[in-house]
UniProtKB/TrEMBL annotation:
The protein, known as: Glutamate/aspartate import permease protein GltK
One matching Pfam family: BPD_transp_1
Source organism phylogeny: Bacteria, Pseudomonadati, Pseudomonadota, Alphaproteobacteria, Acetobacterales
Gene Ontology terms for molecular function: transmembrane transporter activity
Record's subunit section: The HisPMQJ complex is composed of two ATP-binding proteins (HisP), two transmembrane proteins (HisM and HisQ) and a solute-binding protein (HisJ). The HisPMQ-ArgT complex is composed of two ATP-binding proteins (HisP), two transmembrane proteins (HisM and HisQ) and a solute-binding protein (ArgT).
Sequence similarity: Belongs to the binding-protein-dependent transport system permease family. HisMQ subfamily.
GO cellular component: ATP-binding cassette (ABC) transporter complex
GO BP annotations listed: amino acid transport
Native species: Teichococcus deserti
Location(s) in or outside the cell: Cell inner membrane; Cell membrane
Database matches in PROSITE patterns: ABC_TM1
């Protein structure tokens, strides 16, 4: 065996890493300089950051996110259960719903809901009907469009969580006389949550940003509020920066909350890291 004692140990220099760091620093410095010397009136950013219209838009963004996700989760759970049902009719309805609302753009669905009066001028029957244009406000159209679309995606997330549970759990619940719904509630869903929470948390954060699409139907969320202001004062970049900062703040708050929730449901599953 050759003698290697006289060799000098040279650490790996990782030149590629240093080069990558240098390139990233240069890009960040160039971006910072562009914003610093660009024609951006930062005083306007601070002045309109807490403007009443922006605060109203922030409130609308938050409640629309919660409402759309609540509707989406409800529809997603129902659709996932239908998809896992042995009944072929329920399976077909669930598959059709998922195919339809995942296969069309969200902005198209928002526009269809907002213009529903062109198809159904009135909703209801006889004396108990109302004009659709009076009912289908921008808020309701946004809630239905975002929530129903989200339900199609959430159903696949829930179904993936249900499929991750061992089939023996289903058989054991059936053996002790549990009904299918009770087994889902007491055994399957609690175990599926470990798989469901991470993608569902990402969907929730994505919904915060997805509400910006509702500006096309005049729903007064953050982006729409910023647009209304810069239409009046022509400070386009400044108001867009205000909207961007608020979106980043919301996401920065939700991200650690999602991590804590994931850690809680990962306890005892070897995934708490």
């Amino acid at each position: 065996m050759p003698d290697i004692a006289h060799y000098t140990h040279v650490p790996n220099r990782h030149w590629g890493r240093w080069l990558a760091v240098a390139i990233i620093i240069l890009l960040i410095a160039g971006l910072a300089r562009a914003f610093a010397v660009g024609q951006i009136e930062w005083d306007f950013v601070g002045r309109f950051f807490t403007a009443p219209a922006i605060m109203t838009g922030l409130y609308n963004t938050l409640w629309m996110t919660l409402g759309a996700m609540a509707l989406g989760i409800t529809l997603g759970v129902i659709t996932a259960v239908m998809r896992m049902s042995p009944n072929p009719v329920l399976q077909g309805v669930a598959m059709g719903y998922t195919w339809l609302f995942r296969g069309t753009p969200v902005i198209l669905q928002l526009l269809l809901w907002f213009n529903l009066a062109l198809i159904f001028p009135r909703l209801g029957f006889g004396e108990f009907s109302v004009r659709t244009v009076d009912v289908m406000t921008p808020a309701l159209a946004a809630l239905l469009g975002l929530g129903i679309n989200q339900g199609a995606y959430t159903s696949e997330v829930i179904r993936a969580g249900m499929l991750s549970v061992d089939t023996g759990q289903y058989e054991a619940a059936k053996a002790i006389g549990m009904t299918r719904l009770r087994a889902l509630r007491r055994i399957i869903f609690p175990q599926a949550m470990r798989v469901v929470i991470p993608p569902l948390g990402n969907e929730f954060i994505g919904m915060v940003k997805l509400t910006s699409l509702a500006s096309v139907i005049q729903f007064a969320e953050i982006l729409h509020a910023a647009q209304n202001i810069y239409y009046a004062n022509s400070r386009v970049i400044e108001l867009l920066i205000v909207a961007a900062i608020w979106y980043l703040i919301i996401v920065s708050i939700l991200t650690p909350l999602q991590m804590l929730l994931e850690r809680r449901f990962a306890r005892g599953a070897g995934g708490a890291r």
